[in-house]
Every structure is written in C-alpha cells, then in structure tokens.
C-alpha cells in the first residue's frame, strides 16, 4: 500500500471514531435531560417556550405545560430542550439588563441578544457610576 492510501484510511478511521463518539455523547445528554424532566420542573421547549410541567403521558409522549397561570399547552415530550435550573437564570439589574459578568456560559443564554432600552441620559449616568467605582 502506498502512503497516500494509508493516510486516507487513517483520516477515515478518525472521522468514524469522532462520529460514534459524538453520537454517544448526544445520547448521554438526552438521557440526562429526560431524567430531569418530571412534573413540577421548569423547562424550555425547542421553540423557546418556557413553562412548568404539570403532567406527562408516557404512552403518547405528551407533556402538559403550564406557560401562564391557567394556560396549559400540550406538547410532544421531545420538544423539551432543557430543564431550567435556578443556576441557569442570569442576574438582571434594575433596568432589565442581563449582567454578563456573572451570566452562564450556556450557548443558549450567551447568544441571546440583549436590547438596551434605556435613554441616553440613563446610559451616561450608568457609565459615570462605573467610572467612579
């Protein structure tokens, strides 16, 4: 066998190894998520809906999700993307701005845009406060 063929086979073997490894990791993550999904848990769906699980139907894979007091939606169990822990919540200041210095490094949280709705005077006052400290 020539070196080029050996190199291509080695690269193919490495790619296959990483494919299986990623598949196993994804399966472990999904099992960990499903073990946390239980009535009373606060969750986020794949489409960004937050709510609390009221009931779960294992046979039909349906979850009753309360999104507001008295508003219950039925969603498929696989749409649950993650369980919201108290640690996941990013601290927010008086103006509703996320404090990025203490926020989670979770890609779902870090990639969300933060819109600053303060007036220019409020922004300038905050900047002066920070410079005084």
TrEMBL record:
Residues 115-133 have a biased composition (Basic and acidic residues). The keyword Magnesium does not apply. Residues 94-133 are annotated as: Disordered. It is a single-pass membrane protein. Pfam families: YajC (PF02699). The keyword Transport applies. Keywords: Cell membrane, Membrane, Protein transport, Translocation, Transmembrane, Transmembrane helix, Transport. Signal peptide: none annotated. GO terms for cellular component: plasma membrane. GO terms for biological process: protein transport. The chain crosses the membrane at residues 6-23. It is found in: Cell membrane. PANTHER family: SEC TRANSLOCON ACCESSORY COMPLEX SUBUNIT YAJC. NCBIfam families: yajC. Belongs to the YajC family. This is Preprotein translocase subunit YajC. It comes from Labedella gwakjiensis. The lineage of its organism: Bacteria, Bacillati, Actinomycetota, Actinomycetes, Micrococcales.
């Amino acid at each position: 066998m020539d070196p080029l063929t050996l190199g291509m086979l080695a690269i193919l073997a490495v790619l296959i190894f990483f494919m299986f490894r990623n598949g196993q990791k994804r399966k472990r993550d999904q099992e960990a998520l499903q073990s946390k999904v239980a009535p009373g848990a606060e969750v986020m769906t794949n489409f960004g809906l937050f709510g609390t699980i009221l009931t779960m139907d294992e046979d039909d894979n349906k979850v009753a999700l309360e999104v507001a007091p008295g508003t219950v939606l039925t969603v498929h169990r696989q749409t649950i993307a993650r369980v919201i822990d108290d640690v996941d919540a990013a601290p927010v200041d008086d103006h509703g701005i996320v404090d990025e210095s203490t926020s989670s490094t979770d890609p779902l949280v870090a990639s969300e845009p933060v819109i600053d709705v303060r007036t220019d005077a409020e922004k300038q006052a905050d900047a002066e406060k920070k410079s005084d400290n």
